[in-house]
Design goal:
Elements lengths: L26 H10 L6 E4 L6 H5 L5 E5 L3 H10 L21 H13 L7 H6 L3 H4 L9 H19 L5 H16 L38 E3 L3 H4 L4 E7 L8 H4 L1 H8 L5 E2 L4 E2 L15 H11 L1 E10 L6 H9 L3 E12 L11 E11 L2
Length: 367
């Protein structure tokens, strides 16, 4: 499929989610390279979907198959990618009178949730200063007011779903709105691997669920929450986009708070940051110098696709030369490399923003 201008959404419709390696600012460059290389097809497999920026941006152009092993990413996929029309919230009329207009109905429901009675639940008890009385450790991920509100809203959404007041699409839409709202009041510098000792001004704002625009599409999209190596054998696609972890920071430990809010499974937690328990299986092999190279080759040879687009940071574990060699040893031949220069994200605005590069490797299966 050729990518016409009317199929390209505005960047304003792609939520800016604070996520390691987010491609939000590179979306137009990626689109330009796809056009330049005359890459065509109808199915687009986003193997490491993350914050969904790439999948959401391309959902009007392709049938998207998105995946991530993090559950909170799966929630975002369901709320931002697979939906092609606004959820109807048909049964919500039993608890609140809503207007027939879909957008106004959703805004009324979000207003209702924003006014939910707070609850001193799991988030309040373990991720606000109230944790000092519960765990003996004062954690400052959220203010006590916002922690109380997160619990109240999260429990209400779960109760609605369990009572069949809302269906699956409606459930994930509301959870997505909650996760986006949580990002805007989190007392962190970038990830949830640590909280700020001094309160960030954003953390003093009141959490507020907001309306999410649905991007309509003529394609059907699918979302998965699986290990990439377990999934690739099941998927046939025209284009596979892979944006694997590129440094040693494990995503499971850097986004544990969002995982807990999304699952609301009240896990056993430990340590200063209240991290969820996770196993070796939960760790990414792409985050280790010892395993990243073999993992990439295994992934390339396991993908069932005509064209592959690999996105990788110039400060990553693997060098540009190493990745080129891996391609040469895979079934994808004649790899082309494009470089996109941009500024490194810095949470400390006083630090000089050095330019770094994003590499886009384009490989095709030669018949």
């Amino acid at each position: 499929m050729m990518l016409s201008p009317q199929n390209v959404p505005s960047l304003d419709s792609i939520p800016k989610f604070r996520f390691i390696g987010s491609k939000h600012n590179l979306l137009e460059y990626i689109l330009g390279i796809i056009r330049q290389e005359k890459i065509v097809g109808e199915t687009f497999f986003d193997v490491f979907c993350g914050s969904t920026a790439v999948s959401r941006y391309f959902k009007k152009m392709y049938s998207i198959i998105s995946n991530d092993n993090l559950y909170f990413s799966f929630v975002l996929q369901k709320g931002l990618v697979t939906l092609n029309q606004y959820p109807s919230f048909t049964n919500i009329k039993d608890i609140v009178e809503v207007p027939p207009n879909p957008k106004m109905k959703i805004k009324k429901i979000l207003h209702l949730l924003n006014r939910s009675e707070g609850l001193n639940g799991f988030i309040f008890n373990h991720y606000t200063p109230a944790s000092k009385n519960i765990d003996g450790i004062e954690r400052r991920y959220f203010s006590e007011t916002n922690g109380n509100k997160i619990d109240g809203i999260r429990v209400r959404i779960e109760d609605w779903f369990n009572s069949k007041i809302i269906n699956e699409d409606e459930y994930y839409y509301l959870l997505t709105s909650l996760l986006l709202a949580v990002q805007k009041v989190s007392n962190i510098s970038g990830t949830y691997g640590a909280f700020n000792k001094i309160w960030d001004p954003r953390a003093n704002k009141s959490l507020e669920l907001r309306f999410i625009e649905v991007i309509p599409s003529n394609f059907i999209h699918k979302a998965f929450n699986k290990d990439s190596f377990e999934l690739i054998g099941e998927i046939n696609c025209d284009i596979a986009y892979i944006d694997p972890p590129y440094n040693s920071r494990q995503y499971i430990s850097n986004y544990h708070v969002l995982e807990t809010i999304a699952k609301y499974d009240k896990p056993k937690i430990s340590g200063k940051t209240g991290i969820r328990k996770y196993t070796e299986k939960d760790k990414s092999v792409f985050c280790s110098n010892k395993t990243a190279s073999d993992a990439l080759l295994k992934l390339l040879d396991g993908l069932k696709t005509k064209t592959i687009i690999l996105s990788y940071n110039s400060e990553g574990i693997l060098s540009k030369e190493e990745i080129t060699k891996i391609f040469e040893n895979s079934k994808f031949k004649g790899v082309k490399t494009h470089e996109i220069s941009y500024r490194r994200f810095k949470s400390n605005h006083k630090t000089r923003n050095d330019k770094i590069k994003e590499y886009l490797f384009i490989g095709k299966v030669i018949a």
